[in-house]
Specification:
Belongs to the IspH family. The protein is of the alpha/beta class. The protein has helices spanning about 30-45, 60-70, 95-100, 115-125, 140-145, 160-165, 185-200, 210-225, 240-250, 285-300; strands spanning about 15-25, 50, 70-75, 85, 105-110, 130-135, 155-160, 175-180, 230-235, 255-260, 275-280, 300-310. About 35% of the residues lie in helices and about 20% in strands. The termini are far apart.
Length: about 325
């Protein structure tokens, strides 16, 4: 355990705390785009604008959009006629826009373009007659959306290496695989290795499905965790990419806590420790990172250090219907 460093000011009552802040962290391009889509839809069409499912998995973001005029619902049948509706960044099954069109609803699709890429790959693999093994977490909105791009029975979900061992396909079956975009890079590599060992002819996607932001944030945690006594991850409990950041730290032997806001930090967590790592999932705004720094500064004299694993400059275009 790292001992608290000595404050430069000998008269300072608060012990020192090194803070290793991960970079990149927080919002990714898909989240930025999704939030802007809701905001622009409200500006263009007026409030309320309905949003099917949380636009991104972050309570602060959702509450902020509610204040601007967004109404969040779980299913399309909760959306009244003649009002605009936005589909979340996680993507939706094909049946959802089909139902919106049947009802003649004005809808805007905020699906992350990297998720949409996986959807298109699924369509192409089915067109080639392949059965898809999809690596993902059952019940996650992205998984529901991706599996909803094909007919029932054309895609099989696996979550673990053990699931691969239970598959009953033969080596001669025409198989391909895809993955959820927000998975653990290391776990997914193990599952893909198991798939390829069991089914040597299985067809891989042209490019890795795990998105750049997920990979980069996990790489950044690998930078900060080894030198930290505790890693704080800002993110929602239903945020897949945030949960994976906790797992990455714990695999490296450093305890990690998932928090949504600074007020969830228990002062007992930092008693006697000298270094804390700090990062944020792809749906958490930088404002929440600064909020945590300010909270820690109430108890300790904080020395900030940023450790960068990659630089990000990705920007995704908005839907054409909002560009007028």
């Amino acid at each position: 355990m790292n001992a608290p460093f000595q404050s430069p000011d000998e008269n300072e009552a608060k012990p020192g705390l090194r803070l290793l802040i991960a970079a990149p962290r927080g919002f990714c391009a898909g989240v930025d785009r999704a939030i802007e889509i809701v905001e622009r839809a409200i500006e263009k069409y007026g409030a309320p604008v309905y949003v099917r499912h949380e636009i991104v998995h972050n309570k602060y973001v959702v509450d902020s959009l509610k204040e601007k005029g967004a109404i969040f619902v779980e299913e399309l049948d909760e959306v009244p006629d003649n009002v605009p509706v936005v589909f979340s960044a996680h993507g939706v099954p094909k049946s959802v826009p089909a139902e919106a069109e049947r009802r003649e609803l004005l809808y805007v699709d905020a699906t992350c373009p990297l998720v949409s890429k996986v959807h298109r790959q699924a369509e192409r693999q089915i067109e080639k007659g392949q059965h898809i093994i999809f690596v993902g977490h059952e019940g996650h909105p992205e998984v529901i959306g991706t599996m909803g791009q094909v007919e029932p029975g054309q895609m099989t979900l696996v979550e673990t290496v053990e699931d691969v061992a239970r598959l009953d396909f033969s080596q001669e079956d025409d198989l391909s695989f895809l993955t959820q975009t927000t998975l653990s890079v290391d776990d997914t590599a193990d599952i893909i290795a198991a798939l390829q060992a069991r089914y040597p002819k299985i067809v891989a996607p042209k490019a890795e499905d795990i998105c750049y932001a997920t990979s980069n944030r996990q790489a950044a945690v690998k930078q900060i965790a080894p030198g930290s006594d505790l890693v704080l991850v800002i993110g929602a409990p239903n945020s897949s990419n945030s949960l994976r950041l906790v797992e990455v730290s714990e695999r490296l032997g450093t305890a990690a806590k998932l928090i949504q806001r600074a007020d969830e930090i228990d002062p007992a967590w930092i008693e006697g420790i000298g270094t804390i790592g700090l990062t944020a999932g792809a749906s958490a705004p930088e404002k929440l990172v600064r909020e945590v720094v300010e909270k820690l500064s109430e108890w300790r004299t904080v020395e900030e250090n940023t450790l960068a694993a990659a630089e990000e400059n990705m920007v995704f275009k908005l839907p054409r219907q909002l560009m007028d």
